[in-house]
Amino acid sequence: MQALDHQFIDNRWVASHGTRRLAVMDPYHERQIAEVTAGDARDVEAAVEAARRALPGWHALGGERRGAYLNALADALTARREALMELSATNNGKALAEAGIDLDDAIACYRYYARQAGDLEARQGRRITHDIEGVDAHCYEDPAGVIGLITPWNFPLVTSAWKIAPALAAGCTVVFKPSEVTPLPEQALAEIALEIALPPGVLNLLHGDGDGIGIPLTHHRGIDKLSFTGSNAVGERVMQAAAEGSRGVSLELGGKSPILVLEDAEVEQAADWVMAGIYFNSGQICSATSRLIVHETLAEALYEALATRIDAIRLGDPLGENTDMGPMTSQRQRDRVRDYLAVAEREGLDAVRDARHRQLPSQGYFIAPTLYRDVPTDSRLWCEEIFGPVLCARSVASDDDAIALANDNEFGLAATVISGDPQRAQRVGRALRAGNIWYNSEQIVMPEASWGGFGRSGIGRELGPWGLSAYLEVKHLIGPA
Ligand code: NAD
């Protein structure tokens, strides 16, 4: 069995100081496929030192050359695309086609920030226009320093690309801790760093869990900034750690996003977009549109169209050609979702579809795609992030009611609006409190547009120029002309 017991520090594989070992699972076969070190503070110490040593040289290299490394990284991922899709599907449980979408997303992200690195170089030292005579002012953007990056398990290689690519483009060096649940695909990044001869210390990868690596990394004062994606509970601890030394922090946290189906929507088309918004990746998406808000005149027809589509979802082996939905990524996540289903049972929620309507595969951490209708607004299922294939629906009488209900939530990551009139859809979209709003569309993600949310969904934005700014410090030189 593969043992991930070495850390990638300074372009070398170094035996982890950690003595605890964690099982890495294949969630479809419910079997252990590898073991990974839980890590240790001494691993963090060595990685931070390496990243600090590498920082001046990596910055001095300039944006053009850093961009060339990012393109080489994208090329290397492309060359491994099929193998990594398979590894990701096996370790995460997502259907193979979805793993392909992930790989393409990650590759596009590295290529985008390769271009951004060049653009950054071109704008260094630009003159600031102002009204004071005899004074010259120039603007520079410097790397924020050594960055600690921590990611979850739902989109291996993607979430890490959204952090590593802009951080390296900006001239930062990084210590990256992937989720201990899906370390196998992420391990490829270290292999690629060696293959493309990335300068030592620029990208350090530490395997481990929260106790072994996460906590020592977030508290380490050699880390200038932290960028974290994951749960709110851990995000708040990361933010507390960042407060020591007044260090920067970016957080991408949870969501409970709405999908609004307005009165003039075409029901069959709307049903397709509703399905894609909640059942993709077995619902383990931070931007899952898990609250369906439908105009009352369409509700019955829409629930019927959704039931037909839910019945057609093929659950099974993530590597199987005929699989639409794989298992949950871990037993822990399966159990968390089951707990919510038990709450729904106690609350007497009205299930249009749930486990009673289908036979689950005999193995794998599966949850049946579920749809509850007329869910009370004070139900825990309506308010809290479930992170599974569970859709809660309510009907409303007007666009204003739909907007008010959509905005009545602590999170604000994403939303979708569906209408026969694109102007109306955009008008409603503008009234929503969320960072990513799609109209008459599935959830299209592009590296050029921002990612991140309002309220409890986090702090800061990833992707686009905003994603790069997160890793830059602005400075001005001002003096006589
Ligand atoms: P999690 O918060 O449990 O773990 C995330 C990462 O933090 C893991 O690498 C974990 O090892 C590490 N960690 C755990 N304890 C830590 C600590 N005390 N200090 C530092 N690091 C620690 O989240 P998860 O269960 O892996 O992922 C699911 C959550 O992630 C969901 O809530 C989901 O909404 C969120 N998420 C958000 C986005 C987004 O872009 N907003 C994307 C993906 C996932």
From TrEMBL:
The UniProt GO MF terms for this protein read: aldehyde dehydrogenase (NAD+) activity
Q: Which reaction does it catalyse?
A: an aldehyde + NAD(+) + H2O = a carboxylate + NADH + 2 H(+)
Catalytic site positions: E252
Coiled-coil portions: none
Q: Which Pfam families match?
A: Aldedh
Keywords recorded for this protein, A-Z: Oxidoreductase
Q: What is its EC number?
A: 1.2.1.3
Q: Where's the Aldehyde dehydrogenase domain? A: 13-476
Under SUPFAM superfamilies, the record lists:
ALDH-like
Q: Which family does it belong to?
A: Belongs to the aldehyde dehydrogenase family.
Protein name (record): aldehyde dehydrogenase (NAD(+))
